[in-house]
Design a protein that fits this description.
single chain, alpha+beta, Beta-lactamase, four-stranded antiparallel β-sheet, disordered N terminus
């Protein structure tokens, strides 16, 4: 199920950019589909999205949140009964960046694929977790009254359709109950068609599409991964705060927390940041996102989100698949693993921020996997994070 979800997200990401020939082995032009990039195109393109796609800048501030060096670790990863070093793992699984922060100190930092510490790397769906965090900031600032507010309060164009009666909280846990087909192999699926063009002047193209969808089940009763709804949350936040997402993120987190470089946030065809995809930032700033959430959502000495927000956001609110409890649960655009006592922000092709809060451990990984997502690739990453955890808590 998770494979289908993430691949569908990839399909929508690719749909943002019209198809084009991919014969060259250099970063493709803006018209290329990211799903079809060659390994060399991934390596170069993932760290140069600001040159390939329309975007807004998330500005950094004057200060940088320190990440001092700690005692280094040298974990050994066991995959398929064979043990390998971190260097061997990174080469085998095309990892461009691996950062481990324990108790606020960097205990492992490695780069690959010709990437360095100052190079940004695209997030894919890791951006979702930032979008839901901005919902928390908007609640703290009074722009959004409550998660129990109707979605239509902030996106009135949705009135009269399947989103009537759906709350903000149900939207950020993907339990809206609105019918949605996430099959990326079906050209007639919702994910293949949503937001590709401006069909109603003055109305965001995602909103135009989503407001035509019917109700499927009672809101709040079933998890259904909906890529369109993550972009819808981005529209909701910007409508509520009356600012672009990139500007609000800069003001609330990026600048006051102390991110080391500007980030960029890719836009949709209407010029609105994608709530569900495609920020680019340095590896250490991925790690700082983990630190911000782990620290309870404070930046510059101020509480950015409600005091209970980060704990609630990273707790399971709905099982991903009731028939398979091992699949874990879902929070506010965070994947929750109760067995490992961890939570994760995940993106296709191997992007992740994994946090073990009890161990005060944050692991940020950027990759250029040969496939958007497979059980084998996910299992290998889980083996890596487990090995790192074992080495870090000795």
């Amino acid at each position: 199920m998770m494979l289908k979800m993430k691949l569908a997200m990839a399909a929508m990401t690719a749909a943002l950019l019209p198809a084009a020939a991919l014969a060259q082995e250099t970063p493709p032009p803006i018209g290329a589909s990211v799903l079809m990039w060659s390994p060399d195109q991934q390596k170069d393109g993932y760290k140069a999205m600001e040159k390939l796609a329309a975007h807004k800048v998330v500005a950094r501030g004057a200060k940088v949140f320190p990440l001092p060096a700690g005692k280094t670790i040298d974990p050994k990863v066991s995959i398929g009964g064979k043990e390998m070093s971190v260097e061997a793992y990174m080469a085998a699984y095309r990892v461009s960046g691996l950062l481990v922060i324990k108790d606020g100190k960097v205990i492992l930092e490695r780069y690959g694929l010709e990437r360095g510490p100052n190079d940004r790397w695209t997030s894919f769906s890791v951006a979702k977790s930032m979008t839901s965090t901005l919902v928390g900031a908007a609640i703290q600032d009074g722009y959004i009254k409550s998660l129990n507010d109707p979605v239509t309060t902030y996106i009135p164009e949705l009135k009269g359709g399947g989103y009537d009666g759906v709350t903000v909280g149900q939207l950020i846990t993907m339990t809206s109950g609105v019918k949605w087909n996430e099959d990326y192999t079906d050209l007639n699926s919702d994910v293949a068609k949503v937001g590709l063009s401006v069909i109603e002047p003055g109305v965001n193209p995602v909103v135009s599409y989503m407001r035509r969808l019917p109700r499927d089940v009672t809101p709040g009763t079933k998890f259904n991964y909906s890529t369109g709804e993550t972009d819808l949350v981005g529209v909701l936040v910007s409508n509520a705060v009356r600012k672009p997402l990139a500007q609000y993120l800069s003001e609330k987190i990026w600048a006051p927390f102390g991110m080391e470089q500007d980030a960029i946030w890719v836009e949709d065809v209407a010029g609105h940041e994608r709530g569900g995809c495609c920020m680019s930032m340095t590896l250490r700033d991925y790690g700082r996102i983990g630190m911000f959430i782990l620290g309870g959502g404070k930046a510059g000495g101020k509480q950015v989100v409600p005091a209970s927000w980060t704990k609630e956001a990273t707790a399971s609110h709905i099982p991903v698949d009731p028939a398979h409890p091992e699949a874990g649960g879902y929070g506010y655009f965070w994947w929750v693993n109760p067995k490992a006592k961890s939570y994760e922000a995940l993106g296709i092709f191997g992007q992740s921020i994994t946090t073990f809060p009890q161990d005060k451990l944050v692991i940020a990984i950027n990759s250029a996997w040969p496939a958007a997502d497979t059980p084998e690739l996910n299992a290998a990453r889980d083996s890596l994070t487990a090995a790192i955890r074992t080495a870090a808590v000795k």
